[in-house]
Amino acid sequence: MTEELEGAILYEKLNGIATITLNQPETLNALTYDMVGHFQGITRDLRRDPNVRAVLLTGAGRGFCSGANLLGGTGQTLGHGGMGVRGAVMAMNDLLADIAEMEKPWLAAVNGPAVGGGCSLALVCDLVLIAESAYLSLGYVNIGMVLDMGSTFLLPRLVGLRKANELAFFGDRIHGPEAAEIGLANRAVPDGDLMDTAREWAERLAAGPTLSIGAIKLGMRRALHGTFRDALHWEAMMISLIAQTGDAAEGLTAFFQKRKPEFTGR
Fold first, then answer.
1. Which of 21, 1, 24 is nearest to 10 (CA)?
2. CA gap 104, 220 in Å, rounded
3. Average pLDDT, stretch 241-260?
4. What are the pLDDT digits (tens) for 41-91?
């Protein structure tokens, strides 16, 4: 099934994989207030659909996402001054929280520039593949602004405080190979192989035990701001729940039968 939301975001669901493509190539897929609203509708649909077991996010044209376009759409964000800006940022924050808290894995395929809020959008995903020629940039300092959209939380946890300070203070571009080397991306791949590799990873995720992957995802994110003992209690609780799922039964049966399990996401 393919659904087009006013052309700005393309949304396809096929074989357990939802593919979201930001489709404003003339602005390198900058996010307007209206696009964020459409995106939130997509995340609500994804959360409800048990047949979707993995989400692939990418951009059309030569960019992934160039950040927020506060002049675009009907929101007229800047026309409402500081409160208008805050309202737009909070809407984007809700979207990022939806991605982080969704019990389904998100994979970003960064095909081109991912700048400012676009960088944050990539980093909040659970896995990131990046084309070798593409780059990430927390370029807020270049326009006299501060990090937003979760970057102050995500960046130091991914690369450490010293490196995070360097990236934030200078606003430099981090191209594909370096992004993978320092931990902002899982892997840099040749430009022509990006989407094939992304689809292969998405297929593997969609074929996996969805509830188990979701519990692992939420457990790791929760542990980022908890204690070791908190993590132990969370793991014990989740094991008791996941052990009752059909995929867990299938996994154990397949292990003892020495065959590959066939997970259904249930």
1. 21
2. 13
3. 89
4. 999 999 999 999 999 999 999 999 998 875 555 444 444 444 345 666 788
**Structure tokens, 85:** 């800006």
Residue 176 in this model has a pLDDT that exceeds 90: yes
Q: Is the pLDDT of residue 191 over 70?
A: yes
Task: Assess contact for 129 and 110: CB atoms under 8 A.
Answer: yes
What's the CA gap between 134 and 151, in Å, rounded?
19
Residues of the chain with CATH 1.10.12: 210-256
Dihedral sign (CA 48, 52, 55, 59): negative
Closest alpha carbon to 10 in 62, 68, 61: 61
Chain region(s) in the chain for CATH 3.90.226.10: 2-206
Q: 210-256 in CATH: which number?
A: 1.10.12
pLDDT at residue 91 in the model? 83
Structure token pair of residue 249: 């039964």
For 32-101, give the DSSP string.
PHHHHHHHHHHHHHHHH-TT--EEEEEESTT-SB--B-TTSSSS-TGGGHHHHHHHHHHHHHHHHHHHHH
Q: How far apart are CA 67 and CA 245, in angstroms?
A: 40
Domain 2-206: give its CATH code.
3.90.226.10
